[in-house]
Amino acid sequence: MADLNAIQLIQDALKQPLSSGEARRVVFWHDVAGSFEEDFDRLTQEGIGCELARALVFAKADDGSQFELKKKILRDQSSDDFLIYTRRPRDFSEGGLEGNWLADIELVSEHFQADKASMLLGDINAGNAARDAVAQFEKFFGAADRRAAYLSRMPETNTAADVAVGIVSVILKAATARVEDIAQAYLCALHDSGAEFVIADLELFDALGALSSILKKRLGYEGDIVSETELSEHLLISAASCTLPEELLSGYEAHIAKPYSRFCLNIVRDWMSNQSNRETLYEIARNVEAELNIPERLAGAEVSALIDTDVFPCTNEVILAKLMSSLADGSDRRSEALSTRQKRKDLKWYRRVEGLFDLLSAAADTEGFYRDHSQGFHATKPADVWKAYTTDWCAMDAAYRAFCTALDVCLLNTDDIPDALRDAAERLAERVENVYVNWFLPRVNTCWINCAESDWGECGFAKGIEVQRDFFQNYPYRDAKEYKRTLVIIADGMRYEVGRELARRLEQETKGTLSLDAFQSSFPSVTEFGMAALLPHKEISYSWDDGQVSIDGRPTKSTPDREAVLQGAVPGARAVLSENLRAGNRAARKELVGDAPLVYVYQDKIDSTGEKPKLEHGVFKACGDTVDELVALCKIAVNDLKINRVIITADHGFIYTRGPLKEQDKVSKADVGGNDVKLHRRHILSRESIDNRLLANMDMRDIHGGEYYGLALRECIRMKSASGNKNYAHGGVSLQEVCVPVIELRNRNIKSKARVEQEKAAMSLVSTKRRITSSMFHVDLFQKEPVSGKVLPAEYELCLTDGAGNLVTDVQKAHADMTTLDERARVSRPMFTLKAGAEYPPGERYYLVCRDKDTGDIAWKEEFTIDMAFAPTIDFGL
Question: What is the residue-wise DSSP string for 338-362?
Fold first, then answer.
């Protein structure tokens, strides 16, 4: 063993200076296994290979020559150094002294243990108790790289079990010598490389028996060691037995090792958190599900029985299918659906089905709205309808948009969705579409039209509600002296519920104060009229021939046209496109707007998407993208341009339904009547008066001196002959089209009393019990305040530690992201599992630690004790 150079070590020992009072050196070389006998014989012939101060005598302490050797040491060559080689162990016990004539000399001489096992013990920092095990695996330890890999995983070796575990971990390339990592590495190797390849490496170093012993004594596995299927079933079913009712696993008893089940769960949970090979676990779990028909078995259980288990990915799918089917049938399981989603969010495999849980959540919101408003929508004044819509009713539009967005995401990822879940999702989509299209839209807008129609016929807008034409005076012009610079962002097509989402985002992500209002857009609710109304003006004109809208005789079609109008009212004002403002760096942005006191920024993501027939089904995604872009623009205005007031609004909203329109939902030109008319998707312009009960008359006397007549479709239907889109439309008078948001963001100075700092939603422990009596236990957490305004969502990680900070349970996540005002709904119950194989002295203190996942800071730490009659121990001997 060239790299274990015993000769060099002996040379170094013999060259050391003598201690005070010594006249020579006698060294006993113990080599019980005879590993270096040939080396000693060679030294006897060739010499020690270095200069020494005295003559060196080589001798072997054979049983028949000890007396003669003793005479030589003490009398014949009493001034020479001796190097004495012996196969006897260094043993001064009563039995060991028998027949040892050199024991008295050895007691006062130097000792050198240089058999291979002893050399290895020193090289891998192992104790003498591990000698036999090290000798057993001498072949493995024959290479320096393997010894180094072993030492990195097993820095200190005390027992034979340590040797076996360390060697197996190296051969399997496990991350550490923990059994959790060994089990992961072995199953990954079986799955990725096959049994033949893996077993060959283990057999090469006689380690297959060691691995078998580890699996038996630490996982309770006694099956075929080369069978990925059997070992996987044993591990996963045993782990699942900790969190599933016993009756659900009836018939699977052969796969369950009850005393080892919690340790199996530790292995699985640990594996789930390992990003490098978590995908392999997912594939293995899927194989076990199929082999043992796990989805069919779980399908017979109640959702409450499955809520805490996450070993098998199919659990989420079974839960989703059950809840979606119930909601599709009209059952009131909204609270259960929302609480289940919150619970499952903190468990494993959630990210793989997050879109489906988003779908479930949005469906639960629509069902909840439907049930909460089952008596219909009632008001007598337009202003009452407006208030109800902006504070409550618009939530249905938001829920429908969220549902369609989630459905689009799910449709892009259907490969791994089982048929039962896909069918449930499709039925749920039909239910949501029916509720939104056939109940919400017609009823809420019938209420609106009944209240506002007389005002429309009289003055073209609903009285008592702010109108778009007053925007410039009521917003940019107001407080112009207090804020020397103002930036106005106009998002084409952004309806009110999207603006409300934007307002929430801005309040959470900026340090300013924010207000959200709404005004009714001009009729018709189209870009040409809306963009013109947002500019400073006295009169709006419309050209029948080319459809262009001008104000005070000036065109408003292009951005330069609008900038000219602005500069007529505010010298130095600028009008720019959002893409130009976002594209440059800080210097380029400053150069683009200069010192303009007023900047209008035009953004067109929603309307440009919805107006294209091939893209219209992407309009809800465009809404989300618009929110992201507008948040970024506000930050650019405040941080780069140093503009402290930002106003965000839109020219109009829109109406969109996912399903295809039926013929009865369309109105033909013949139904309208009249000759001199222009038909659009949601409105009609005419140069002659038309009286039609299908249409609402809109007074347009303030447009071009009252030359035109406006008509709007009463219901959320379309004109049959108008070209363009089928599902996306605007121009009419539905609340979704005419209710336009106005958001004002004022960036306050850090010393301002009006400034409100952001804070994360806090999570507190409300469980009063601080004594743990079971190896699996729950705690109750409470999200102190709902997420809203400056209270931001947060994610925490919790675990139980001992006094030294070592983890004694798995790590669980807790999301503080609930927006509900219901305090009971903001309580969550994560479940923890004590690590198996450890002792938990009843008098020792433990701490439940809650950390902010983003920063790692400790939010709080609460003291616990553990008092169990039977601790979750396992025989760790090999």
Answer: HHHHHHHHTSTTGGGGHHHHHHHHH
Please answer whether residues 472 and 756 qualify as being in contact, where contact means their C-beta atoms are separated by less than 8 angstroms.
Answer: no
Tokens found for residue 546: 């080319």
Q: Picking from 561-575, 794-808, 829-843, which range would have the lowest pLDDT averaged per residue? A: 829-843
Give the position of tokens 């989402």: 501
Is residue 195 within 8 A of residue 202, CB to CB? The reply is no
Burial 518-532 (b: 16+ CB within 10 A, else e): bbbbbbbbbbbbbbb
pLDDT of res. 873 = 42
Q: Could you tell me whether strands 827-828 and 56-60 are parallel, antiparallel, or unpaired per DSSP bridges?
A: unpaired
**Interatomic CA distance for residues 680 and 708, integer angstroms:** 15
Query: pLDDT digits over 646-676, tens only?
Result: 999 999 999 999 987 776 678 888 888 888 8
**Strands, DSSP E only, in 640-701?**
645-649, 655-656, 666-667, 677-679, 683-686, 695-698
Strand order in the sheet with 56-60: 56-60, 81-86, 26-30, 110-113
CB count in 10 Å sphere of residue 878: 18
Side-chain-facing half-sphere of 361: CA atoms under 13 Å = 21
Decide if 288 contacts 316 (C-beta within 8 A).
no
Mean pLDDT, the chain, as a whole number? 90
The three-state secondary structure class of 124 is coil
Tens of pLDDT along 734-771? 999 999 999 999 986 555 555 567 889 999 999 888 89
